[in-house]
Amino acid sequence: MQVKELVSYLNQIAPFSYQEPYDNSGLLVGDPTAGIKGVLVALDCIETIIDEAILHGANVIVTHHPIIFKGLKRITGANYVERTVLKAIRHDINLIAIHTNLDNVHFGVNHIISEKLGLKHVRILSPKAAINHKLAVFVPHTHSDLVREAMAKAGAGMIGSYDSCSFSLEGEGRFRPGIDANPFLGKAGELEVVREVKVEVIVSQHALNAVLDAMKAAHPYEEIAYDLIGLSNTNEYIGSGMIGTLEKEMEVMDFLNTVKRTFHCGAVRYTNPTKSLVKTIAVCGGSGSFLLKDAIRAKADVFITGDFKYHEFFDAEDHLMIADIGHFESEQYTSEWLVAQMKKKFTNFAVRLTSVNTNPINYL
Question: Where along this sequence does the record place binding of a divalent metal cation 1 (predicted)?
Answer without folding.
Answer: 65, 103, 327, 331
